[in-house]
Amino acid sequence: MAKVKTTFFCQNCGTQYAKWQGQCNACKEWNTIVEEVIQKPEKNDWKTPTSTTKKASVPLRIKDIDVSKEPRLNTYDGEFNRVLGGGIVPGSLTLLGGEPGIGKSTLLLQISLKLPYKTLYVSGEESQKQIKMRAERVNPNNNNCYILTETKTQNIFKQIAALQPDIVIIDSIQTLHSDYIESSSGSISQIKECTTELIKFAKETATPVLLIGHITKDGHIAGPKILEHMVDTVLQFEGDRNHVFRILRAHKNRFGSTNELGIYEMQGSGLREVTNPSEILISKKDEELSGNAIAATLEGMRPLMIEVQALVSTAVYGTPQRSATGFNAKRLNMLLAVLEKRAGFRLGAKDVFLNITGGITVDDPAIDLAVVAAILSSNEDTALQKDFCFAAEVGLSGEIRPVQRVEQRILEAEKLGFSSIFVSKYNKISLKNTVIKIQLISKIEDLVGILI
Ligand code: TYD
Ligand code: MG
After folding, report:
1. pLDDT score of 345
2. What is the pLDDT of residue 400?
3. Which of 114, 339, 353, 419 could form a disulfide with 311, with the two C-beta atoms 3.0–4.6 Å apart?
4. What is the value of pTM for the model shown?
5. Is residue 65 part of a domain?
6. What are the boundaries of the signal sequence (predicted)?
7. What are 329-386's pLDDT values in tens digits?
């Protein structure tokens, strides 16, 4: 009998070893190295659908390469198209990662039910009946979507050859297994092999493949890092499970920018595209409340108005508490120190809580000024005018710094009916005929003077 060939893989980062050891040299995790059988069976009884003799590639001048024949496939989902950079590129592999229960299966099933092309949805996680039940909630009248419950790649390719779908969706890559490798599904070598087979299939037939991937407890896509290198696009579906909003962003995109953001709302009948997020993220209230300020932020190319809430109260215990949700806590401490030093506020003996409403996390520095305004407003217990908004970064010496694409933020604020926007004096603004009042400030003291 032939000797069984095995290798050792770190299950955390995918590094390969010739023999077992306790700690992975690459990622420094303990007890993650596992032996996997990688022997290929002698008998090769299957082929990928088109693994016929392929012509060797020849170099071409860049201007001679014809791209006109490859239009992107419209997914009929505005948010998904935007994040991908205008639709799915034929022959591309897209990986969608996200926490369990966040709605990855729902999103891709919903997209396959909207498509007018022939789609094959391969599920290794749910039965055909379960998927049908989900489909009935989302969009029951579709004749182009086929469901296959199968986990063996060789069988999947057989079905693909018979059906000839225009697009293939795999839920999920961790459930697939290939006969070429003997280790169990979800192991590093299986994930690598199945992805390689799918890439070969996608590139040779120009069929786009969408993969769902599980994530590990620290938020990375489970499996080797190399998986993310192999695919063309890595999307992350995130959001607080207790909130109704879901955010889709691209971590890697070979065919577009990674700045774009898609926003969905989870409803009883699937995910609804949120085309005007600003209106939802700002609570519509009649009374003016202290501690609230609106920031004009940008997520990718899209302006987003976000409500910041602060609560400043006298510290009950010796050490004051500082906590921030959706905002970097270190940055909050820095802004508090600036306020203390430059504007003479004695916040040292106060508890400060900060919350970005809507359950989203913002890392646009333009939110700083709204954070400072919300803190000042709560500290003084006086409400800011509810049609004020802010877009500037605050520096360590209390200076108000300019932010990128300020004109786009101003126009969005005007569109949503704000009367004044506070921006840095150093921003170059060439807008004319704006109804909104643009208040230019250069120091944090100016803001204190105007607001209080
Ligand atoms: P699912 O797509 O199964 O998540 P994942 O594949 O990422 O693990 O999403 C499951 C959640 O979505 C579940 O908690 C119920 C919710 N949901 C709705 O609220 N409305 C719907 O129409 C559907 C189909 C699911
Ligand atoms: Mg799922």
Report:
1. 81
2. 94
3. 353
4. 0.75
5. no
6. none
7. 999 999 999 999 988 888 888 999 999 987 778 889 999 999 999 999 999 899 988 8
Q: Is 147 in the pocket of ligand 1 (CB under 6 A)?
A: no
The whole-number pLDDT of residue 187 equals 85
122 lines ligand 1 (CB under 6 A): no
Bridge-partner residues for 428, per DSSP? none
Q: Are residues 269 and 302 in the same domain?
A: no
Q: Are 405 and 298 in contact (CB under 8 A)?
A: yes
Same domain, 300 and 175: no
333 lines ligand 1 (CB under 6 A): no
Q: Is ligand 1 within 6 A of the CB of residue 268? A: yes
CA distance 300 to 388: 23
Same domain, 285 and 264: no
The CATH number linked to 445 is 3.30.230.10
| Residue 294 and residue 242 in one domain | no
Locate 92 and state its tokens: 């591309």
Q: Which residue among 211, 245, 275 closes a domain?
A: 275
Q: Of 275, 300, 329, which closes a domain?
A: 275
Give the chain's residues under pLDDT 50.
43-46, 49-53
Rounded to whole angstroms, the Cα distance separating 107 from 64 reads 38
Probe ligand 1: pick from 96, 99, 104, 106, max atoms within 8 Å of CB?
106
Q: Is 134 in the pocket of ligand 1 (CB under 6 A)?
A: yes
Considering its fold, how many domains does the chain have in total? 3
pLDDT at position 129 is: 92
> Can you tell me which residue has the tokens 């992107």?
72
Residue with CA nearest ligand 1 atom 21: 270
Residue 368 pLDDT = 95
Domain extent at residue 2: 1-40
Whether 196 and 343 map to the same domain: the answer is no
CA of 212 from ligand 1 middle (Å) equals 14
- Regarding whether 284 and 269 lie in a shared domain, the answer is no
Dihedral sign of CA atoms 353, 357, 363, 364 in order: negative
- In this structure, the answer to whether residues 286 and 346 fall within a common structural domain is yes
Average pLDDT, the chain: 86
127 lines ligand 1 (CB under 6 A): no
Residues with C-beta atoms within 5 A of ion ligand 2: 105
- pLDDT tens for each residue of 163-179: 999 999 999 899 999 98
* Residue 103 CB–ligand 1 contact under 6 Å: yes
| Nearest ligand, CA 239 | 1
Specify the ligand 1 atom closest to the Cα of 171: 6
Indicate the residue type of 18. A
CA of 240 from ligand 1 middle (Å) equals 13
Pull the structure tokens for residue 160: 């693909």
